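Q: Can I see a sequence and its folded structure?
A: Here is a first one.
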Amino acid sequence: MTSNKKYFIIYTDSPLGDFLRSRKIERNEMEIAVIKTGGKQYKVSEGTVLKVEKLNSKDKIEFNDILNGKKVSAEIIGEGKSEKVRVLKFHSKKRYKRVKGHRQGYTEIKITGIK
């Protein structure tokens, strides 16, 4: 019986090993926050770009971190509409068919800081 697990050996004195170790250290030092907007929660770090439910603000936004109570600041990059969702109502054998479309608005934000 064979297993589908794959193992990689990275030698510590190779340049690739040094690179991966440095990336792991950077990832552990990165600040992470959880923000809530539009009824959803997002895990963010500085520099993260998100599409969230449409916001009325024009320039900069501040969110509260749910876990640690930190302030998360963000700037608005743009606004738009997502892809169309088609809603179909159909009754068989009754010649009844109704099709509606809906495009949900969103705001694209970039996280600028966590304090």
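Q: Show me another, different protein.
A: A second, unrelated one:
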Amino acid sequence: MAIHLTFTYLLCPVPLFLFDSDLQRVIRETGSLLIAFFVGALSTIIGTIGAFALIPLKSLGEEGWKVASALCSRHIGGAINFVAVADTLQIEGSIIRKARVCIVLLYELVC
């Protein structure tokens, strides 16, 4: 319910701001930062595919590739992307909770 309200009333108006923006100017002024973002995003996608090939998340069954996709999107665009991809791919709530716990545990181990 909260996710639906967030997407409907808070996030849906955000793309409307893009209608008034000059995309050529944005691309010209961001320059190397935009290139760095695309390189980082592509590297994250390649890394996710490689990691999933090594560790296929078999314990999640058919949901494994969905969780890998949601985690990949989280690393590219933040937690809201994780929620959006998980919602789009219709990942079960219990599996989403397990994935979030794993994220927190991994960050605690690394940081």
